Amino acid sequence: MHCVVCIKQVPDSAQIRVHPVTNTIMRQGVPTIINPYDLYALEEALRVRDAFGGTVSVITMGPPMAEAALRKALAFGADRAVLMTDRIFAGSDTLATSYVLSHGIMRLAAEAPVDIVFAGKQTIDGDTAQVGPGIARRLNLNQLTYVEKIDRLDPAADEIVVHRRAEGGVHVLKTELPCLITMLEGSNSIRFASMDDMFRAARAEVTVWSAADAGIEDQTRCGLRGSPTVVRKVFAPKPRQEKAKLIDTAGLGAAEAAPKVIDALLAADSKLADHLAAG
Amino acid sequence: MSAAPTPPRPAGKGPAKPAGRSRELPEHLKAYKGVWVFIELERGRVHPVSWELLGEGRKLADTLGVELAGVILGPDDGSVGAAGADAAAYGADAVYTMEDPILAAYRTDPFTRGLTVLVEAHKPEILLLGATTLGRDLAGAVATTLATGLTADCTELAIDMETRTLASTRPTFGGSLLCTIQTLHFRPQMATIRPRVMSMPDRRDASLPRVVSEALAMEEEQIVTKVLDFIPDRDQDTAHLAYADIVVGGGLGLGSADNFRLVRELAEVLGGEYGGSRPLVQKGWIPADRQIGQTGRTIRPKLYIAAGISGAIQHRVGTEGADVILAINTDANAPIFDFATHGVIADALEMLPALTSAFRRRLDGAARAA
Ligand SMILES: Cc1cc2nc3c(=O)[nH]c(=O)nc-3n(C[C@H](O)[C@H](O)[C@H](O)COP(=O)(O)OP(=O)(O)OC[C@H]3O[C@@H](n4cnc5c(N)ncnc54)[C@H](O)[C@@H]3O)c2cc1C
Ligand SMILES: Nc1ncnc2c1ncn2[C@@H]1O[C@H](COP(=O)(O)O)[C@@H](O)[C@H]1O
Question: In what side-by-side order are the strands of the sheet with A245-246?
């Protein structure tokens, strides 16, 4: 089995700050992590390899510093890592990103046929959940999104059965390999990387591919030029016309304040009082 | 790739669409007219987000002076026709339909193919889908096939009259900013919107809509993916946050997983649902389907009580549709007071149980009086 896992390096959201004057994101000094959702994808791929043998390749499109995310993935146990980096990739939206990544995956498939491509449910910075389906379409992979678990995998028959989260329940789907799976959060938890793994990963080779290396001929479909969506403006939300009406409870203990708070709420909206009385 | 399944249709990797290169709206794209809403029909029922989007689509269509249509794919058991009549009641002028037994349960391939056929035949300029697991799966596949722009999880839609294009606003990375995204030179302009972000329009008496149908023209044998089973969620296990009338939410200000009990108790007395901010999910204090906000559930209750929540933009956009928002926070400068309707500066650990007993007394009193 050859599994390819798409991972993205993202800023650690908890620590990101916005410049109060220019409204731009201050990335300097913000630590980066592997997109947390992608770790579920990576762990699932590693489990497939542990059960059936084969290799796990990790691939990312990003700036040269994204190599750190790949090394982390190698420490968790990935066998091979590819960094797709090129100035013409900058500014890619999801359509352009899936275009670039699908070329990288095709190049990997030329070395060893790919059985499953894994992606995270979404990224914490782009947050679109579109790149996975985009890759599946471009490579004609059977698309399985929001997968909670792989129920059965039969590499000999090229068959897979998964549980896919749907509205109000779970779909049990059977399809053929090759397929693309986006894993749902909480479906597994990433294994522990030992000191030894980390030393091994630090010395491992990370393959770097430019657009040309990946066989991308049509450069107009990458980066800003290949992105149909454009960001027209970035702005801070306006406060509501009036600020919250502060309910004055000065000098009151919680027990005396609570009825005042309730009175204020019920006075604000008569329908609310009816609703509570009815409920 | 090993044993690639025969594609029902060459995917986006095939011949580059001319639209994929040019920045000018090419002549043939000027034919794209009208606003379409994908009507999500599953197991005979339409997801309410579809009606919410028709309400919003009506405004966009009126601004542009074009037709509003619902697009419905489903089995040939009459459910598509029934959904079409409902779509008219929620504002659609027309419905574009495709009926085929293959479309009984959602599968990516036939739905992608079906929706793509309809779009290519009838050329809408805007296509809106609910950001459900189905809508997101389908939207990503269709946008790639059509090589057009797709904006996920929008919180506001408008028409930029200068370019006559859709301006989709969504929160952007960083925690306190919004961005407006446009697809200027590609059609259709696609967007997904979460349930409850837009308000539910009123039903009106409507005559039957104009119906335009196309055939799927696929055989079951062509479709590799099979649905073996559907396991419905057990009702008691699922949170009904999105459509609850009363929601009590807790944030990091509660201090510990154990204190979250105070939120649940108030919700129970009020007959409502409970939820929380994203960090609580990440810490494992509450399950993921209880997260309120942009990447969780969007809520539109009559009353939302937010305790110990600072009010970051991702939380705000998920709660702004509430009629009344009461914020309980110790910090008078917390951003939540910028969008709550009511505020009380107090320790949530004291105020929550006090509210629980005061509400309980009120409701008991009301019950006795009745
Ligand atoms: C891509 C992305 C998506 C996100 N999606 C979501 C989302 O969907 N939903 C979401 O909620 N967040 C989301 N977030 C996170 C969001 O940016 C904030 O980090 C988060 O909402 C903060 O949670 P909080 O208000 O509980 O915690 P904090 O910001 O730490 O606020 C705690 C508040 O509690 C108050 N407090 C402290 N003690 C008490 C007390 N005893 N009584 C009363 N008040 C007290 C404090 O004054 C403070 O205002 C997202 C972030 C990113 C980057
Ligand atoms: N630049 C990238 N490099 C590698 N994988 C990516 C990249 N961007 C997105 N992905 C994958 O696509 C998934 C969905 O991303 P998104 O559409 O941005 O929410 C992620 O969880 C990753 O698995």
Answer: A245-246, B342-345, B324-329, B303-307, B246-250, B273-276
